[in-house]
């Protein structure tokens, strides 16, 4: 057999022989995803609402408020709801409400330790609260709280706690974080629309020169569309239920047949600031979530439209980008100022919409009275809003670094006099109806003059002068330029944007 030699070690083989640091074991922990790593600063406000710790804090909050309701009643509900339950003093109520209020790093670790034993997250919350109740005498002295310990999680299934917790979480994220950021960027856009309401802009339909508008009017269209979606999100319902394992109040009625449990449930849910859902299976149906996520996704898609339009205006030179001192546009082309804010926004909006669409589509379905697909799905609400919030931040930063190149806008208009073919043929039609002779085939005559060819100002005026239009009409058309042919664009911004 012919002799053979072992191949030389490749760079890959050599590199493979070196033991690498296990990044998964580095402390502090390295984030797997960009929202908790590279982009943490932009999305950090959502952690208070949509993180795992926020979910557990809301679970504690709901359990505590349910305990208080069972002991002290609620609006329109006599106390106690459960006969024999102690009436809690204000000091005791304050002690209970301090449990979620002071839920921080040490408590998060303690709850995680309990959950490792229970292998059940909601049960771990119950035990966590009971620990605090057992320790209440150390803080309060003589107290009736330990006597109420078994009312923690009374007659509840896990979903009674979870659905209310998620409703509170999403409501907080939407109202306290996402809506303010989204409203601010739309207001920023509207301000630009007003500022440039009179700046003439050559429109492009199908990418081709078309009837001029103004830059402000085109920005106002997007601001108007975005504000409509904001109004829908602002009007969202956040539903909740507390009615037991299959929505029948079965355990409630057997344990305490004298209570009006639907009334208690309604008062409790509405006391949390949520809308009560009276008819459910084991789970609250999540239809309201699908509605909110669809509206946010629609806002995202309109914002995506803004990002692509601004990107295109930048590529045409209509917008120039104000360079950031010290920033690098390209690793090899030093002249470049890339529209990265709008490109990053596009990508994040697409990821957000994908997640929101999945949430909307899957959460409205549950097999028979319950399956757990919603549990896993809802843990991705945070990333869905996170990518949207990151995109909003990028768009706001991008808009803030734009300047209008008015010289190029004028040059672009002056190079496309053929767009006046529309008003000239329309004036000919009106004159024909008024009985002016020689106005036959106006569209066809303008088509022969302008289709597929450039027409300058002199050629257009020459054509108009030879039509035999009434003097006032001819004078009006002779004075018209592409830059002045903007119709009511400026007035539309002033009258309808706000």
- Count the DSSP helices: 22
Radius of gyration: 33 Å
Going by helix content, strand content and strand pairing, the class is mainly alpha
Number of domains: 3
Mean pLDDT: 93
The largest sheet, given as strand count, sense and whether it forms a barrel, is: 2 strands, antiparallel
EC number: 4.3.2.2
Domain Fumarate lyase N-terminal: 37-345
Domain Adenylosuccinate lyase PurB C-terminal: 366-486
Family: Belongs to the lyase 1 family. Adenylosuccinate lyase subfamily.
Question: Any key phrases for this structure?
Answer:
single chain; 498 residues; mainly alpha; Fumarase C, Chain B, domain 1; Fumarase C, Chain A, domain 2; Ribonucleotide Reductase Protein R1, domain 1; 3 domains; two-stranded parallel sheet; 22 helices; 6 strands; 5% strand; elongated
Please, could you describe this protein's structure?
- The protein folds into 3 domains: 103 residues, Orthogonal Bundle (Fumarase C, Chain B, domain 1); 188 residues, Fumarase C, Chain A, domain 2 (Up-down Bundle); 65 residues, Fumarase/aspartase (C-terminal domain) (Ribonucleotide Reductase Protein R1, domain 1), CATH 1.10.40.
- It is elongated, with a radius of gyration of 33 Å.
- The protein contains 22 helices and 6 strands.
- A hairpin with a 2-residue loop joins β1 and β2.
- A two-stranded antiparallel sheet has the order 1-2. Strands 3-4 form a two-stranded parallel ribbon. A two-stranded antiparallel sheet has the order 5-6.
- By secondary structure, the protein is mainly α.
- Helix content is 58%, strand content 5%.
- α9 runs parallel beside α16 and α18 runs antiparallel to α19.
- The termini are far apart.
- InterPro entries: Fumarase/histidase_N, Fumarate_lyase_CS, Fumarate_lyase_fam, Fumarate_lyase_N, L-Aspartase-like, Pur_lyase, PurB_bact, PurB_C.
- Its EC number is 4.3.2.2.
- It holds the Pfam family ASL_C.
- It is an enzyme of class 4 (lyase).
């Amino acid at each position: 057999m012919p002799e053979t030699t072992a191949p030389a070690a490749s760079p890959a083989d050599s590199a493979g022989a070196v033991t690498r640091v296990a990044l998964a074991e580095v402390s502090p922990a390295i984030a797997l995803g960009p929202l908790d790593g590279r982009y943490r600063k932009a999305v950090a406000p959502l952690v208070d609402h949509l993180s795992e710790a926020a979910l557990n804090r809301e679970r504690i909050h709901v359990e505590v408020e349910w305990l208080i309701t069972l002991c002290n009643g609620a609006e329109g509900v006599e106390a106690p709801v459960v006969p024999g339950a102690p009436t809690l003093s204000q000091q005791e109520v304050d002690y209970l409400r301090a449990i979620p209020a002071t839920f921080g790093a040490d408590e998060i670790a303690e709850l995680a330790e309990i959950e490792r034993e229970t292998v059940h997250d909601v049960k771990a919350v119950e035990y966590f609260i009971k620990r605090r109740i057992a320790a209440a005498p150390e803080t309060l002295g003589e107290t009736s709280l330990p006597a109420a310990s078994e009312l923690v999680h009374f007659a509840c299934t896990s979903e009674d706690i979870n659905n209310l917790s998620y409703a509170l979480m999403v409501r907080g994220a939407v109202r306290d974080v996402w809506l303010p950021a989204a409203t601010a960027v739309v207001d920023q856009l509207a301000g630009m629309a007003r500022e440039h309401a009179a700046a003439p802009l050559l429109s492009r339909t199908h990418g081709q020169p078309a009837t001029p508008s103004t830059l402000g009017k085109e920005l106002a269209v997007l601001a108007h569309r975005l504000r409509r979606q904001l109004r829908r999100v602002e009007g969202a319902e956040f539903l909740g239920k507390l009615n037991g394992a299959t929505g029948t109040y079965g355990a409630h009625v057997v344990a305490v047949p004298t209570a009006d449990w639907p009334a208690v449930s309604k008062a409790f849910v509405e006391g949390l600031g949520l809308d009560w859902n009276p008819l459910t299976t084991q789970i609250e149906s999540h239809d309201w979530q699908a509605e909110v996520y669809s509206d946010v996704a629609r806002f995202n898609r309109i914002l995506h439209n803004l990002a692509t339009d601004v990107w295109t205006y930048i590529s045409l030179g209509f917008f120039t980008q104000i360079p950031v001192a010290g920033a690098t546009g390209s690793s090899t082309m030093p002249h470049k100022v890339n529209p990265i804010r709008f490109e990053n926004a596009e990508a994040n909006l697409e990821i957000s919409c994908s997640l929101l669409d999945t949430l909307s589509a899957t959460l409205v379905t549950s097999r028979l009275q319950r399956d757990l697909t919603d549990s896993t799905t809802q843990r991705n609400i945070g990333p869905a809003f996170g990518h949207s919030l990151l995109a909003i931040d990028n768009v706001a930063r991008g808009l803030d670094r734009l300047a209008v190149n008015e010289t190029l806008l004028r040059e672009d208009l002056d190079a496309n006099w053929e767009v006046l073919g529309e008003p000239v043929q329309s004036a000919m039609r009106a004159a024909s109806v008024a009985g002016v002779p020689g106005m036959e085939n106006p569209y066809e005559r303008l088509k022969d003059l302008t289709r597929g060819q450039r027409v300058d100002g002199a050629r257009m005026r020459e054509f108009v002068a030879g039509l035999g239009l009434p003097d006032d009409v001819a004078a009006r058309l002779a004075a018209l330029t592409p830059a002045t042919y903007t119709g009511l664009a400026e007035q539309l911004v002033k009258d309808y944007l706000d």
